[in-house]
UniProtKB/TrEMBL annotation:
<dbReference type="GO" id="GO:0045454">
    <property type="term" value="P:cell redox homeostasis"/>
</dbReference>
<dbReference type="GO" id="GO:0033554">
    <property type="term" value="P:cellular response to stress"/>
</dbReference>
<dbReference type="GO" id="GO:0042744">
    <property type="term" value="P:hydrogen peroxide catabolic process"/>
</dbReference>
<keyword id="KW-0049">Antioxidant</keyword>
<keyword id="KW-0676">Redox-active center</keyword>
<dbReference type="InterPro" id="IPR050217">
    <property type="entry name" value="Peroxiredoxin"/>
</dbReference>
<keyword id="KW-1015">Disulfide bond</keyword>
<protein>
    <submittedName>
        <fullName>Thioredoxin-like protein YkuU</fullName>
    </submittedName>
</protein>
<dbReference type="GO" id="GO:0005829">
    <property type="term" value="C:cytosol"/>
</dbReference>
<dbReference type="InterPro" id="IPR036249">
    <property type="entry name" value="Thioredoxin-like_sf"/>
</dbReference>
<comment type="similarity">
    <text>Belongs to the peroxiredoxin family. AhpC/Prx1 subfamily.</text>
</comment>
<keyword id="KW-0560">Oxidoreductase</keyword>
<keyword id="KW-0575">Peroxidase</keyword>
<dbReference type="GO" id="GO:0006979">
    <property type="term" value="P:response to oxidative stress"/>
</dbReference>
<dbReference type="InterPro" id="IPR024706">
    <property type="entry name" value="Peroxiredoxin_AhpC-typ"/>
</dbReference>
<dbReference type="InterPro" id="IPR000866">
    <property type="entry name" value="AhpC/TSA"/>
</dbReference>
<dbReference type="GO" id="GO:0008379">
    <property type="term" value="F:thioredoxin peroxidase activity"/>
</dbReference>
Length: 182
């Protein structure tokens, strides 16, 4: 059974990355995001079918996340070289094109394991998405089957609800009233 991470400190990580421009290599660690909101998402593998729909949709929405003072980091068990090749592959050839956030390489699978999304038998990650607050606490986690993509709209809605500081009922959106605790 997967461990609950919500309400706990996010597991520390350091990953090699490739920038969204598909050129520059670097590193990312949890400490880099201290004081910021972070959407950390895992996907199974580069050069697959559902993954580019999610990754490019998150990239297209990057300005909305930026307005919410939130960074995005995508992670798979592929190498930084594979990520770079995928970003530099044209979209019509199952590539990503340029992105508005980096991709992290978890080739040791340790980060996916620490976040409870590694399918050990297959050596790949499930589709896991985590919202981490500026203090490093996991506020939201969703993990689903690799055949089904996630919702960018729902991720933004949940992020806005978390940032609102109130009790948010079902389908809460900015401008809606918070519940009053008794």
């Amino acid at each position: 059974m997967a461990e609950r991470l919500v309400g706990r400190p996010a597991p520390d990580f350091t990953l090699e990355t490739v920038s969204g421009n598909g050129q520059d290599f670097g590193n990312a660690s949890l400490a880099d995001y201290k004081g910021k909101w972070l959407v950390l998402f895992f996907y199974p593998l580069d050069f697959t079918f559902v993954c580019p729909t999610e990754i490019t949709a998150l990239s297209d929405a990057a300005s909305q996340f930026s307005e919410l003072k939130t960074e995005i980091l995508g992670v798979s068990v592929d190498s930084k070289h594979s990520h770079r090749a995928w970003i530099n592959t044209p979209v019509n050839d199952n590539g990503l094109g340029k992105l508005n956030f980096p991709l992290g390489a978890d080739i040791t699978k340790s980060v996916a394991r620490d976040y409870g999304v590694l399918i050990e038998e297959e050596g790949i990650a499930l589709r896991g998405l985590f919202i981490i607050d500026p203090d490093g606490e996991i506020k939201y986690q969703v993990v689903n089957h690799n055949d089904v993509g996630r919702s960018v709209e729902e991720t933004i809605r949940v992020l806005q609800a978390l940032q609102s500081g109130g009790l948010c009922p079902i389908n809460w959106k900015p401008g809606d009233k918070h519940l009053v605790a008794k």
